[in-house]
């Protein structure tokens, strides 16, 4: 039996079982996260004069590439040898396991190529992608909580989670663990709040929100993985912490280029009143 002063989590990761088909909380949360992220990203882009047909195809392929690359990055950091010898599990996202850093390294490249192809502002599209991620990630963490994954070490803290459902992915049933997924959910909400506050109060030029999001994500992941039960790889750090350091280093030249470019998006020809657009933001009525 789990300790009395912790939270017992009896729920199954499976929401509905329809014969051989399992509908899991994890998949439902991802679907809701995509819809909420698309709504937020689309709202941001429309406020800057872009039409839905300008970015609809990009959004679809960003989701596909993000899912595939996040899963493959997880495979790589969790044991490439196993997945190479068991290729049927390479893309088995329903088994759990996604490493968002995989999407961070690949999706911006797709956005850049699309922006060059369509003659759109890369930084503006990238800011929308940052909002997509910032809205979607906390929702996705709810699925992790139901799965019983992304856990810290065993704990008797009052907010520790003890999983008791046999379908749970927790290492041991009845043992209370620090809920690292819950911590990440709360951190994600804080990052989203910062982005919304910066956009509303400072109205920065396109690209700033992306850089802020990536910097905050790198810092948060470096810190949270001290509480996550993952194996240490090198220099006393875990794989995600090394990825966080790599992202922080990569942001230095990207930020330098952004500062030097001083790029402002062009006002679309179908914008009702170009005089109301300042630094890429349409003035509020």
Summarize the structure.
This protein has 285 residues and is mainly alpha-helical. Helix content is 57%, strand content 9%. The strands form four sheets. A three-stranded mixed β-sheet has the order 1-4-5, with no helix packed on it. Strands 2-3 form a two-stranded antiparallel sheet. The chain has a two-stranded antiparallel sheet with strand order 6-7.
List the helices and strands and how they pair.
Layout: E1 7-9, E2 14-18, E3 21-24, H1 25-46, H2 52-85, H3 101-118, H4 122-147, E4 161-163, E5 176-177, H5 180-201, H6 208-224, E6 232-234, E7 237-238, H7 239-261, E8 277-278, E9 281-282
Would you give an account of this structure?
By secondary structure, this protein is mainly alpha-helical. Helix content is 57%, strand content 9%. The protein has one domain (7-13, 22-264). The chain has helices spanning 25-46, 52-85, 101-118, 122-147, 180-201, 208-224, 239-261, and strands at residues 7-9, 14-18, 21-24, 161-163, 176-177, 232-234, 237-238, 277-278, 281-282. The longest helix is centred in the first third of the chain and has 34 residues, at 52-85.
């Amino acid at each position: 039996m789990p300790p009395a002063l912790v939270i017992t989590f009896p729920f199954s990761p499976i929401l509905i079982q329809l014969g051989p088909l399992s509908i899991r909380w994890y998949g439902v949360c991802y679907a809701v996260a995509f819809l909420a992220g698309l709504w937020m990203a689309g709202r941001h882009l429309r406020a800057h004069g872009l039409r839905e047909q300008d970015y609809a195809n990009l959004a679809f392929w960003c989701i596909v590439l993000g899912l595939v690359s996040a899963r493959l990055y997880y495979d790589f950091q969790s044991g490439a040898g196993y997945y190479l010898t068991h290729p049927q599990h390479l893309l088995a996202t329903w088994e759990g396991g996604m490493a968002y850093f995989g999407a961070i390294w690949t999706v911006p490249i797709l956005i850049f190529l699309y922006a060059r192809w369509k003659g759109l502002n890369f930084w503006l599209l990238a800011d929308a992608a940052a909002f997509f991620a910032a809205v979607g990630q906390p929702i996705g963490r709810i699925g992790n909580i139901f799965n019983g994954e992304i856990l810290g070490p065993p704990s008797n803290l009052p907010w520790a989670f003890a999983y008791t459902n046999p379908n749970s992915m927790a290492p041991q049933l009845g043992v209370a663990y620090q809920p690292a997924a819950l911590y990440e959910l709360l951190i994600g909400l804080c990052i989203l709040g910062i982005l919304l506050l910066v956009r509303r109060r400072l109205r920065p030029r396109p690209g700033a929100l992306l850089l802020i999001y990536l910097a905050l994500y790198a810092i948060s992941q470096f810190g949270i993985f001290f509480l996550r039960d993952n194996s240490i790889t090198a220099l006393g750090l875990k794989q995600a912490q090394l990825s966080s350091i790599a992202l922080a280093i990569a942001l230095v030249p990207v930020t330098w280029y952004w500062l030097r470019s001083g790029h402002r998006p062009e006002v679309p020809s179908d914008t009702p009143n170009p005089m109301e657009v300042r630094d890429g933001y349409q003035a509020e009525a």
